[in-house]
Amino acid sequence: MSHTSNKHTQTTIPHEVVGLMIEKNISPMAAWRKHRGLSQVQLAQKLGLTQGAIAQAEKLGNKPHIETLRTWAEALECEVDQLTE
């Protein structure tokens, strides 16, 4: 799966992340977290949030604020574009 950003650059998503999204029917944010081997609790601790906040952000169809996406991208070592559907 690839995603073309507004700047006409292509950002690719690793096959493993796409596989998690399809197999488990989860959001890109949840798939990246799982791909990095983190639990919701571990990511929450890393971001200074609660596990519930992580669960809410990971819900399919959720449209997180750009600052949330930037924070998650830094924590998960990926690009913001890779966290969006």
Provide a descriptive summary of the structure in words:
Residues 1-8 have low confidence and may be disordered. This protein has helices spanning 15-24, 28-35, 40-47, 51-57, 66-76; strands at residues 2-4, 10-12. It is built from 5 helices and 2 strands. The longest helix has 11 residues, at 66-76. The protein is mainly alpha-helical and 85 residues long. The chain has a two-stranded antiparallel sheet with strand order 1-2. The protein is globular, with a radius of gyration of 12 Å.
What is the secondary structure topology, with strand pairs?
Layout: E1 2-4, E2 10-12, H1 15-24, H2 28-35, H3 40-47, H4 51-57, H5 66-76
Antiparallel strand pairs: 1-2
User: Pairing-aware structural class of the strands and helices?
Assistant: mainly alpha
CATH superfamily grouping? lambda repressor-like DNA-binding domains
Strand order of the largest sheet: 1-2
Taken as a percent bin, the fraction of beta residues is: 5-15%
Strand tally is 2
Quick rundown:
It contains 5 helices and 2 strands, in the order ββααααα.
Key features?
85 residues; mainly alpha; 434 Repressor (Amino-terminal Domain); two-stranded antiparallel ribbon; disordered N terminus
